[in-house]
Amino acid sequence: MAFWWPLLVLGFAYAICRFLLMLIPPSVPSIEVETSDVVDDGTQTKENSYIYIPPRGRTQQADRKVQCYEPATMKYLGYFPALTTAEVKERVAQARKAQKIWATSSFKQRRQFLRILLKYIIEHQDLICEISSRDTGKTMVDASLGEIMTTCEKITWLLSEGEKWLKPEYRSSGRSMLHKRAKVEFYPIGVVGAIVSWNYPFHNLFNPMLAAVFSGNSIVVKVSEYASWSGCFYFQIIQAALAAVGAPENLVDVITGFAETGEALVSAVDKIIFVGSPGVGKQIMRNASETLIPVTLELGGKDAFIVCDDVDVSHVAQVAVRAALQSSGQNCAGAERFYVHKDIYSKFISEVSKIVKSVTAGPPLLGKFDMGAICVQEHSEKLQNLVNDALDKGAEIIARGSFGNLGADAVDQFFPPTIIVNVNHTMNLMKEEAFGPIMPIMKFSTDEEAIALANDSNYGLGCAVFSGNQRRAKAIASQIHCGVAAVNDFASTYMCQSLPFGGVKHSGFGRFAGVEGLRACCLVKSVVEDRWWPYIKTIIPKPIQYPVAENGFEFQESLVETLYGLSIWDRLRALVNVLKLLSEQNPSSSSKRRRTVVFLCQSLPFGGVKHSGFGRFAGVEGLRACCLVKSVVEDRWWPYIKTIIPKPIQYPVAENGFEFQESLVETLYGLSIWDRLRALVNVLKLLSEQNPSSSSKRRSD
């Protein structure tokens, strides 16, 4: 007993110390970012434009500019240069110099960079969301959900697990290499290029940047021509954080322009990450083949949302509407095809119709609206064409949301949330990515039919399956050909940043996020070294030394059976022959020549870089390269704790919806326990408020 008492005391003291350390907030410096240029004071003109990117290039095209407007109001925001090929190559060259310095940085320095960003994001949620709202037309709540929470989740995952997954990973050395130690090392790949879409300008910039920088790379990001204004402001936040940790100025760069700019970026970097359409993705693959660089493509989806007959319909209805209307439906992981069991079809239609009819669309910063604008004006016409095609083929609109008080010049920027029934797979609406606030709903009779319908698509990004029986939902999800699957939830796979994200078929390939996404920014190197050096060294057995002995091949045959024979008796018999052949004094200059068998550690990946190619076969990586990698999220404590949409952000969104989101973000990601507790109190307070969720009051942000 006397022996255990000191251990108990030490263990208790250790626990107390850990608890006290948790109470001490980390020392994280604050950064200042100039915001006067982005405050809407009504003075924006084409002469008074906002260019945040220093004009470092020598040959800027004065006649080619990226013009920026607010899609919800058509207010002018400014213009940015369309960089030439020469300018892009110069930016990449500067990033390459910065990367060589940053590659030697410590993980401590990299984590501090992330903490500084996290602190700024939490303290400036309203500013970040307002910038996104102005540039893309989404509401503040949608911006918080898609821009803030996802980015904070990625940062916190990297802080807690990033270093672990970039350290050398030891593997088994196999029977032929028992005297060796095998490991996989992860080195920065160099300069990562990213071409990102406009729908979530903050997260789409930060997502590849965080993984690239934490793994020791530099990165050059081409932001979309439809979201250059916000992307270039967000770039200032990154620059300030880099300066605060003493990182090279050009470690992260943002460029603007059109197709020529993107093509120049692809030809100059060591890896490319693309988020966009299948058509552009194919062109990027063709361009990348010229320099043989690895490519990650996320090309959107046509996600299926399956509702079985044993669900709580009213509960699922709120999730379904959020899945369809989040960010005005401009969400790569949004639900675009709804399959509902015939026995609950009518009830489901009734529930979602009530919700959709209560949704109002309008300029998100000019009043209380549940849904914002369509970012690209021409896209509204595409959405209407998809609806018209469905109506011509027998579909029916049964519910639409309403517009707020819109001006006569705002019609094209808004599209009402729409529910369409009597749809089928001959309609373009069920085949093409809509990327808009449309809910096409189709009934099914059996689980097998639902699976067949979900798989009848050229896309394969994600799916959501709802059932009162968790096992049934998991069985359905496992048979859907896609990259991410949520069981009794929607898009939760993206909030689990430990999981890889990506699709199959026309949704692209490769993964970002998670371990796979982090390591995809690395040069994966297989290393074998002597386990007991210098006592046991590698030798070439005498029968296969040059010149090869007469019994060389017989020796190899016996050695193979010794190592890999199916029974112990086969191996022992072969071992006796190996020892016998080693002792023979055969002449070693034979007219017969055989190729030497090279023993490899097959637990290690095999492949090269540059013109030696990319990708890996052999080892874990080679085995998984033959697989569809699917991320799945399911309820841990089903059915006791289920996914719910918090009341303040249910449609129609409450007046305190954004305030609730701000507090929720700080509760989850605050840097100190005191910040999180204070925010939690506010979350509980806001949840208990009985604010009307559909108010005629208009709020001005």
How would a crystallographer describe the biggest sheet? 8 strands, mixed
Strand content: 5-15%
Kindly report the spatial arrangement of strands forming the biggest sheet. Answer: 13-15-16-11-10-18-19-23
What is the CATH T-level topology of the largest domain? Aldehyde Dehydrogenase, Chain A, domain 1
* Alpha carbon gap, first and last residue: 66 Å
Count structural domains: 4
CATH class of the largest domain: Alpha Beta
**Quick one: overall form?**
globular
Number of discrete helical segments? 21
Task: Show unreliable segments.
Answer: 47-61, 587-599, 692-701
Which architecture of the largest domain would the CATH scheme give at its second level?
A: 3-Layer(aba) Sandwich
Mean pLDDT: 90
Please bin the fraction of helical residues.
40-55%
Keywords:
701 residues, alpha/beta, 4 domains, 8-stranded mixed sheet, 21 helices, Aldehyde dehydrogenase domain-containing protein, oxidoreductase, Ald_DH_N
Walk me through the structure:
With 701 residues, the protein is of the alpha/beta class. Helix content is 40%, strand content 15%. The chain is built from 21 helices and 23 strands. Helix 4 (125-136) packs antiparallel against helix 7, helix 10 packs across helix 11 and helix 17 (552-564) runs antiparallel to helix 18 (568-583). The longest helix is centred in the first third of the chain and has 27 residues, at 140-166. The radius of gyration is 29 Å and the shape is globular. Residues 47-61, 587-599 and 692-701 have low confidence and may be disordered.
